[in-house]
Amino acid sequence: MNVLAIETSCDETSAAVVCDAEEPSQRILSNIINSQVDLHAKYGGVIPEYAARYHLDVIDVIIEEAMQSANVHFNDIATIAATVGPGLIGGLLVGTVTAKTISLATKTPFMAINHLEAHLLTARLCYDVAFPYLLLLASGGHFIIAEILGVANYKILGETLDDAAGECFDKVAKMLGLKYPGGPAIQNCAVNGDPRRFHYTIPLQKKCGCNVSFSGIKTATKLHIDSIKNITLQDKYDIAASLQNVVVTFITKQIERALEMTTSNPSNLVIAGGVAANLALRNRLLTFAERMGLHFWAPPVNLCADNAAMVAWCAIERIKAGFKHSDLRFPTRPRWPITEI
Ligand code: KG4
Ligand code: ZN
What we know:
- This protein has helices spanning 37-41, 48-70, 89-106, 115-126, 165-175, 182-190, 215-226, 233-261, 279-292, 301-304, 308-320; strands spanning 2-7, 12-19, 28-35, 79-85, 110-114, 133-138, 143-150, 153-159, 268-272, 295-297.
- The mean pLDDT is 97.
- The protein is of the alpha/beta class.
- 44% of the residues lie in helices and 18% in strands.
- A 5-stranded mixed beta sheet has the order 3-2-1-4-5, sandwiched between helices. A 5-stranded mixed beta sheet has the order 8-7-6-9-10, sandwiched between helices.
- Bound molecules: 5'-O-[(R)-(carboxyoxy)(hydroxy)phosphoryl]adenosine and zinc ion (ZN).
- 5'-O-[(R)-(carboxyoxy)(hydroxy)phosphoryl]adenosine binds at residues 10, 139-141, 166, 169-170, 181-184, 187, 273-275, 277-278, 305-306.
C-alpha cells in the first residue's frame, strides 16, 4: 500500500510517498521538504499570507519530485492524504485542495489527516514502538503530554497554559537578534554558554498535574537581557544556555509527573515535533527514561520537524486500524485539537 501525502500547515511545503513495509527503514520511498525559513527569516516569524502564496508556487513541483524520487505513478498510489488542520488556513487550503483534486482526477480515495496526530505517530514510522506510550509533542505551536493508548485513542495529561516551547525559543531568539527559527539558533549558542549564569524559578511546581507555562520564563529572560548594559556574544551564549537548561529541566519534571498520572503502565517514552530535535532535550530525556526503566524513542531530527512522510504514515495507521477514507467535502480545520479527531 503506497500513500501519497501533502503537508502545508505552516512554512514547509512537503510531499512524500510512504508504504506499509514491515521493516521501518523501507517505508519512506520519498519525503521532499521545501522549507520557507529563508523567506520568513527577515520578518522573524512566519507571515501566513506569504506562506500560502509560496506553497501555491511550489506544491506541484514538490509532488512531482516526490513521485519521481519514489519511482511511482498515480496508479501505484492507494490513498492521497493531506494535513487538513490544525495550522495556517491559507497553507492548509493549498495542500487540501491539491490533494482533493488529485484524488478526484485519479479516482484515488482521499484521507484528511490531523497534523498533531501525524507528529504523535511518527516514532512508529521509524521504529517498532508498541502502544501504549507516554508522549511529548513539542513544536512551534503546540505542547502536549499524552498517553497514547492506540490509534485515535489519546489521553491528554498536560498542555501549555500559554506559549508552546518552540514559540518561547523563537521569541527569545528574536530578542537576542538571532536568526529565525529560534530553536536551532538557541541550541547552537547554548553550546558555548554557561547554563547556570542566569537564574530562573521553575513554573507550576506548587500546582498538581503536568501542565506547562513558558510565558514567565520568557519574561524572566527579557529581564535578564535588559539587565545587561552592552550585550556581548558571550552574554547571548549564556542566556541561550540558561534558557535551554530551564526549559529542558521543566519539561523533564512535568514528564516525570505525567508518568505518575498514566493508567496503562507504558514502557515507552516517545518525543515528537520540531522541539524534539533539540539535543539537550533528547539527552536529558534519554537519561530520565533510563532511570525510570522506559525505552526512549526519538525520531531522526528531519522527521521531528514538519514533513509529509509522517502524514502518509498517519493515513496508513488509520487505514490499518479500520478507519474509513474521508469525503471530499471534509473541511480544512485551522483549529483541530487531538481530542476531537
Ligand atoms: O513541528 P515544527 O516543525 O512546526 C510546527 O508544527 O510548529 O516545529 C517548529 C518549532 C520552531 O519553534 C523551532 O524553533 C523549533 O521547533 N525547533 C527547535 C529545534 N529545531 C526546531 N527547538 C529547539 N531546538 C531545536 N534544535
Ligand atoms: Zn508540526
